Amino acid sequence: MKKNTFYLNSWEEIKTTITNIGNKSVKGATIGVIMAMLIYLLSIAKYIETGISPAFDIIVGSLILIIAFGVSFYILKTAFTIVKEFNPVFVVVFLSFFIIANYLPDSFFIHPFIISGLISGAVIGLAISKGLKKYVSAILIIVAVLANGYLFYYLWNDGFNNTAPVTDRYWNQKASINEIEDPSIEGNYKVKTLFYGSGNDLRRADYNNEVSIKTSTVDATPFFDQTSGFGNYLRKIYWGFDSKAYPVNARVWYPEEEGQFPLVIIVHGNHQMQNFSDPGYEYLGKLLASRGYIVASIDENFLNASWIGDYNHTEVFTRAWLILKHLEEWRTWNNTEGNYFYNKVDMDNIGLIGHSRGGPAIALASVINKHTRYHNDANIKFDFNFSIRGIIQIAPTDSYNPQTEVPLKLENIDYLLLHGGYDQDIYWFAGNRFYNRVCYTDNNYHFKSALYIYRANHGQFNTVWGKIDTTTPKSWFLNLKPIMEEKDQQKVAQIYISAFMEASLKKRKEFIPIFKDYRNVNKILPKEFYINQFEDSDFRYIANYEEDFNVTTATLSGAKIQGENLKVWKENTLPFRDDWNSSQQNAGVFLGWDKAEQTLKGISQYTININDSIGKISQNQLLKNLFFFICNNQGDVDSVDFTIELVTNTSTVKRTFSSLMILPPPLKVQLTKSNSIFTLGKNDSFERILQYIEIPFSELRTENDYFNPNEIKQIRFIFDKTDRGEIILDKIGVN
């Protein structure tokens, strides 16, 4: 009892001392704050420049700021007078939670949520104080209950679907190739499954007593030292290891039959580390294994985020390095008699698939695979040099560069990008930057392709991640209603990923048309809007708008450009629909026309004059196709049509664009239920994504026997089919 009295008296003495000090120093403290603020106000007042005189500027600026201070002082003093009358317990509880909320994730939500709770509680409290039997009290309680009911309904419902419907006119377009093997059909191989890893995993039996092949751990500390800090200490408690001993774990699907099979590595991205991501690609692993591939979905969950924190892309190099450490194991097993995979792996044909942060990881792995030393410490030697032929990025991030502000470039590799318009994590077409940076410098055949799937999201490419692309409370504000069915999204992934591996690792070029035009497989695709991009190492560019920003010059030497009666004619980078106005790191030409514009006389057109320079491209070989990329840049115009004219020395041929393809309308998205509370991509409602268009010269020759593509002098886009519109053109060329 005496001990408790002692502590109580001590606490009272401390409070009395603090109060006395405060009362004696309050006047001086008040004057000090006022003087500090006045000095600051005077110092920034000089930035108000009226042009009359510096003295006048300072006086005006000071008066404005002093008035603002006076108004604030009066409002806060009045509010404080009112607050003093409140129950101190209420004031302390409210301020405590409001302040704590500043340090919690997603404070954009918790502050309004606390205030709504305050209002609701106050209304109900007022009703109770008046007596529950009174009509006013009943009305107040009903209003509070209904308001909260609506709030919780709003938060928990899936939102609304205002997406553009897929019309029959769009979906029933004629395909250039009618019969292509369905790459999503299971093959003839029987599929077996096994696990390899450390054999002592604390959290998963798959990598504990169920491993068929034990692997040694690897030390990642030279690249990513996570052996210190409280967060890493907690991670070590959970996993049982840190960056000194990362495991090499994976689940494998492979053909039971004898033979050598290409190897495919699948790498998940960032997700809650406790919700293990690597099992989520079984639908791909089993399909590919049945078609003659060995597929390993590797475990990098220990690099993922949790309540402890997120490495925020600083771990991407380590993700990439771990992929190559897995490949080292496969090389060893392939050469080790008695191993499950002895002489079973075609190490000359390796493909990588990366989802989310796994996307930049596989891209980086394909680059450092060719390095002999670590770029940040050349004393560390590498000896990888695997035959990585192709990579597939699924909704990748593009936030990491191994060198500061130097984007990673990919050379001489096959590439595929899949991304959804309703991705509510990477909600802009970030991977398009990777696509644009893929280049070909050797003499081998390579190709790259991108597919934009209108209503696909981020998570449904992984069966573990599912429909919700972010954590609570943000997920409560996501508009989930428009998102396509999970089975349909995975069907698209199976078609394109399987076709890519067939084309890249098995050199089956009959699958290439799938990547040029979705219409070639629309019999097996789910009914949806798709946009394809495609380029290969045989492409030769007349105008790709990367050489300069002179609107009258082209990429091809000697070619000149002219425009007539155009409302819009400019060259610029294509924007992303993100929230910070970044670009796709790719330039194009913006062309707009409007017949109602009084200043424009005559038909709007855009002409590329090639003269004799086409011979530099053809090199006396017969050219097969004209190609270009296009997108609609006018949100309130649903269709695009115009005339394409090709002029040679002896002939002129024309095609209407609508005879080549019906573009989808602007694919507008509403990713959240309300942009006033939580927004994603608020600056624009649709992404500018270029569609690849190919015109076979053989078709034009059937219309005009004199047409010779090797003698093309002019390529003209004549905007004569619609009253107004605006498009973006890019990458005009021949192959």
UniProtKB/TrEMBL annotation:
<dbReference type="InterPro" id="IPR029058">
    <property type="entry name" value="AB_hydrolase_fold"/>
</dbReference>
<keyword id="KW-1133">Transmembrane helix</keyword>
<keyword id="KW-0472">Membrane</keyword>
<dbReference type="Pfam" id="PF07224">
    <property type="entry name" value="Chlorophyllase"/>
</dbReference>
<dbReference type="GO" id="GO:0015996">
    <property type="term" value="P:chlorophyll catabolic process"/>
</dbReference>
<feature type="transmembrane region" description="Helical">
    <location>
        <begin position="110"/>
        <end position="128"/>
    </location>
</feature>
<feature type="transmembrane region" description="Helical">
    <location>
        <begin position="88"/>
        <end position="104"/>
    </location>
</feature>
<feature type="transmembrane region" description="Helical">
    <location>
        <begin position="54"/>
        <end position="76"/>
    </location>
</feature>
<feature type="transmembrane region" description="Helical">
    <location>
        <begin position="29"/>
        <end position="48"/>
    </location>
</feature>
<feature type="transmembrane region" description="Helical">
    <location>
        <begin position="135"/>
        <end position="156"/>
    </location>
</feature>
<dbReference type="GO" id="GO:0047746">
    <property type="term" value="F:chlorophyllase activity"/>
</dbReference>
<dbReference type="InterPro" id="IPR017395">
    <property type="entry name" value="Chlorophyllase-like"/>
</dbReference>
<protein>
    <submittedName>
        <fullName>Chlorophyllase-like protein</fullName>
    </submittedName>
</protein>
<keyword id="KW-0812">Transmembrane</keyword>
